[in-house]
Design a protein that fits this description.
Helix content: 40-55%
Low-confidence stretches: none
Number of helices: 9
Strand content: 5-15%
Largest sheet: 4 strands, parallel
Shape: globular
Order of helices and strands: HHHEHHEHHHEHE
Oligomer: single chain
Length: 253
């Protein structure tokens, strides 16, 4: 049986809507604990260790994708968890921004530094052990809407829209600018490691979008464009994941 030889260019072709020479496999996310079961290797906790441990983690992590016939390794580090006081979206804690005063004293400028303090070693470790012929898909996880919700909560965000439309707009603007800075730094450092960039931003639920189509067009899509334009300027495709029914904004995306 012929040995599998990965070639990340197959998935780049697919991302550009070009018929690939063979069908590439892709997963947005795979549990490392399920990887352990497939590989018969316990490695998930190594990512919490020093650089040698992190490199050992990524050797096993990449080996999973290689053994199962993937051309790429899916990996992202999310912005939400490093935002001070976050967790309103993922953990249902109370949001830290409810008023203009909350917004004004929030440490926006710290977020890029916190992101790199938390994750730079992981990206460096992945780069050190990436198998020949493979590249990564991912980047700085969490989109604009998710990050806003993670510091306000969805219900509180709706109250802010009704009570203070200017604050509502400023939340999306500031998150867009902050995430844009992180993405610019990511592209400067790891553009060669990644062949396709992506983030997820769950805009919808079963029947429609969580915010009005007008709000998404006005407050979210422009922030996407700033980031994606930077990705495209590096010659890279971009993949947006979004859960839910988003047909009313598909043409805008």
């Amino acid at each position: 049986m012929k040995t599998f030889e990965p070639d990340y260019r197959h998935i780049v072709d697919a991302a550009r809507n070009i018929k690939a020479r063979r069908l590439p496999l892709y997963e947005h996310l795979i549990s490392t604990h399920q990887m352990e079961k497939v590989l018969g290797v316990v490695f998930a906790d190594q990512i919490q260790g020093d650089m040698a441990d992190k490199q050992a983690f990524f050797r096993s992590y990449c080996d999973f994708f290689l053994r199962l016939g993937y051309d790429t390794v899916s990996f992202e580090c999310c912005i939400g968890p490093v935002m001070p006081g976050s967790g309103a979206l993922g953990s249902h804690v109370a949001g830290v921004i409810k008023t203009r005063a909350d917004f004004d004293r929030y440490p926006w400028a710290e977020i890029p530094e916190r992101f790199w303090a938390a994750y730079r070693d992981q990206f460096d470790a992945l780069a050190a052990v990436m198998p020949a012929g493979m590249k990564a898909i991912g980047g700085s996880g969490n989109g604009i809407f998710e990050c806003v919700q993670d510091i306000t909560g969805f219900e509180e965000l709706c109250y802010i829209k009704a009570d203070d439309p200017e604050l509502y707009a400023d939340l999306f603007r500031q998150v867009g600018e902050t995430n844009g800075r992180i993405w610019q730094q990511f592209l400067d450092r790891y553009s060669d490691l990644y062949c396709v960039m992506r983030f997820g931003d769950d805009l919808g639920f079963k029947s429609t979008t969580l915010l009005s189509a007008e709000d998404i067009r006005e407050h979210i899509v422009p922030a996407y464009k700033q980031i994606i334009d930077r990705v495209h300027a590096r010659g890279k495709p971009f993949l947006l994941h979004s859960c839910g029914n988003i047909f009313n904004v598909m043409e805008d995306l």
